[in-house]
Every structure is written in C-alpha cells, then in structure tokens.
Amino acid sequence: MASLRKTWGTMRIVALPLTRVPPPRHTVTYYSFKVVPPPAPPLPKDSPSSRWLPKEGVVKWATLKVDATWGSWGKAEPGTWRFRVFEFGERFLDKLDFEEAALKRIDVKSAPPAKFPDDLTGEERQQAEAAWGKLKVPLFYPPSISSGPAALSDLRALLQQRIPLHNRGFYTYLIIAPLTAPFMIVPVIPNLPFFFCAWRAWSHYQALRAARRLDALLQNGKIVPEADKALDSAYASPPEVDASLKADAPPSPVPNAPADTNPDTSSSTTPRLIVTRDSLGNAMRALDMEPDEGKDLLRAYEQAMNRVR
C-alpha cells in the first residue's frame, strides 16, 4: 500500500443518523468526511515557485485568509456595517444545509480517485494499479441504529439529492454574479452582492465536486460499510433494533426518546429525532472533532430537529 499513499490520500466516512423514518424515506444523517493527503514531495530549494508560494497551497491560503477576514468582522464594533454583515452571515450559515458544509470539507484533490489514473506509466503505474484495486473507503456506522445496507442506501440517496441541487446552484449564482456589477459604484462598502454570489457559486462547486467523487467511489464499490460500536455513544438510549428493522422494515417507537422529540410523533410513519445535544457531545469526543466540525454537527442537529417538526 506504499504506492497508494504516494499517489493519493486515504479517506474515511462516519455516518451519524439523526432521525429515524420508515422506508422508503431515508434518515437525516450527519456525515463526517476525513481525507488524509499523501506526503507532499519537497520542492527544490532553488525553485522560483518555492520562494513565494504558500506552503499549504494557494487555495488553502486563500481560504484561511477569507476565514481570518470574516472573523475580524465579527470583532468589529457593534453597529458598524462590518459587524452587521457578520451577524447576517452567521444567521444565513445557520440556515444553510449542513449537508453542503460537510461535503465542502472533502479535499477532492487529495481524496482517492474515482477511477484508476491514466497518467502513470511503467512500474509506477503497476504499483498504483495494484494499490487502487485494494482501495477501500470505510463507511463507519453505529450498529445499534443502522446496518451496512442501510448505511450505503442512505449515502446513495444523499448523493442523488445533492448532485443536481449543487449543479443548479453553481450555475445559478455564476449567472447572477455579473449582474451585481452596478453595486461596485457604491463608495466605501465593498460589492457585497457580488462576493455573496461568488461565494455561493464556489460553495456549490466544492460540494458538487465532492458529491460526484463520492458517487463514483460508491458505484465502483470502493465505499465499504463497517460497524463501529464507539459511535453508539452518540445515542443516549439506543433502541433495540433487529436485523430486519435496520435493513427494511418500519422502526418501532424509540424508548426513552430525547426531550426534543415530540410525543405526538409516535406513529411508525412519522420521522423522529433519536439524538440529543448532550449525546452528540459523546460523538464529538469519539471522533475527536475539530471545533468547526463540532459546530457543524450541532447545526445539523438543529436542522434535523426542525425537519421533523
């Protein structure tokens, strides 16, 4: 597997179901995607590009720069236009689909390829071809809540929904962005409508690329479900679930349901929330989440709660 790490990175997926719904509908699931890039080859010391290019790459540097600028706006004086834009932006982010934020975290450049790369030759090609043949992307799921077939089915349903959505969003904002040019004549304040459209187009594009890569890996049988009992800690009181229930059959009511669950939704035809904020804290610790991803998980919880109401 040495050639695999030299050619592309490794990847793992963690699925945390947030709701339970009867078939054929699919659960609302939070996905944690992690890509470990391969070691970067060192640049020659006398290379001109090594003198001015950021070590983390131009795209990563620009992303960090934007994040730093956005954070500084949040520290501006209350009442200023920067602070007001920051408040509006944070409220918008809370309403943005958490699935989009999760997909955007995938580093497509370092992720395993959808198919064997054709640009390799000789011994390097033979080694990489053998490594790609053994490539597996584990899809971890909580065995007390889901099953292997159900985990794959939910992921497939998510991608079938997100790919056309992000494709439309990308082209829509790409077309709208030039129409915001007249706002450039406003003095002092930057052209916020243009930057918003450009950001939304970029966001949709990033999520679209990631969704397509996952869909291709799924179709090629490279994503393999694996039960992980440590993920059961995300559920305050995991219900007893038999094999037929996890795969096909409608679920039974969840015992000791979270306080956020509406007692009137006990029917087997009604979606139900099966996590709490406290139990998700267990998942954050089990997955060793970064603060930003933990924030995304809590945002996913809030959105899932609103979807089942």
From TrEMBL:
The chain crosses the membrane at residues 170-189. It comes from the Eukaryota. One of its GO terms (cellular component) is mitochondrial inner membrane. Keywords: Membrane, Transmembrane, Transmembrane helix. Residues 241-275 are annotated as: Disordered. InterPro entries: Mit_KHE1. GO terms for biological process: potassium ion transport; proton transmembrane transport. It holds the Pfam family Mit_KHE1. This is Mitochondrial K+-H+ exchange-related-domain-containing protein. It comes from Mycena maculata.
